[in-house]
Specification:
The protein is α+β, with helices and mostly antiparallel strands. 22% of the residues lie in helices and 17% in strands. The chain has 2 domains: 34 residues; 47 residues, no CATH class. It comes from Salmonella enterica.
Length: 96
C-alpha cells in the first residue's frame, strides 16, 4: 500500500506500531503454560521424580521425599551412585 502510494509511510508505521503494542499487551496478559517433561521413575518406590538442584548439581529426586530417598540419576547423563547410609568417604588430594 505504501509502494502504491495509497498510504503514507507515517500512517503505515503508526498502524504497525499500534498492532505490535496490542500483541505485546495480549502476550503479557496470558500466563505462560509450559510443563517440564516427566522425570524417570524412582528406583526405590516406583513413584514420580522431579528435577532438583543439589550442592553437586542437578538430579532427579523422588516426590515422596523424605519418606523415600530415591534418586533416579543426574540430568547431565552421568551415572548416579547411591552410597549406603552411614558410609563416609575420605579423600586426600595431593596438590603439586
Amino acid at each position: 500500500e505504501v509502494a502504491a502510494g495509497r498510504v503514507s509511510l507515517e500512517d503505515f508505521m503508526a498502524k504497525q506500531n499500534a498492532w505490535v503494542v496490542q500483541l505485546v499487551c495480549q502476550g503479557k496478559s496470558q500466563p505462560l503454560a509450559m510443563q517440564s517433561p516427566p522425570g524417570p521413575p524412582c528406583p526405590e518406590c516406583g513413584g514420580r521424580t522431579v528435577q532438583r538442584q543439589g550442592k553437586n548439581g542437578v538430579f532427579f529426586g523422588c516426590v515422596n521425599y523424605p519418606a523415600c530417598r530415591g534418586i533416579a540419576g543426574s540430568c547431565s547423563g552421568g551415572p548416579t551412585v547411591k552410597m549406603p547410609k552411614g558410609l563416609k568417604l575420605k579423600l586426600k588430594l595431593n596438590l603439586r
